[in-house]
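Form P-L/3: holo structure prediction, ligand zinc ion.
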Amino acid sequence: MSSWKRLRTAGAVVLGAILSLTPFLRYRWGAPHPTAHMDHEPRHGGVLGMVGDHHLEIVRAGGRVECHPSDAHRLPIEPIGGRVECEGGEVIAAAAGGSRLVAPDRCPTNEVTCHVLLNDGMTLRMSAAVPPSAFIKDETAAR
Ligand SMILES: [Zn+2]
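OUTPUT (holo model):
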């Protein structure tokens, strides 16, 4: 093997390593996942579930219940309204703000249900056991 050919091979190996790292870095930085339903990590310290082809993450922190809808690729969706329902049936009106729905947390147990209305008329509904936490993990909420 000539020396220039060896150099080209080494360059190709380095380039390949950089390209193979890129999807991992995108994932770590919270970018939408390129493949649908390959990313089921909670982004806000809550509990993530699938609702049809969408995802919903329920967070209980700082006296609030937050419902974070996202699409199949985990791209956040802006809700237009909705409500939170406690185990036992109490319904709490929720306000849409950015890509989440927020309601005061008055649920007596861990079981909460988010009803998230999207602007295409679809309602995402998910129930989960989410223990209340004293801290908000979402950096946008902490500002
Ligand atoms: Zn999924």
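COMMENT: Strands lie at 47-51, 54-61, 64-70, 81-86, 91-93, 95-97, 100-104, 111-117, 123-129.
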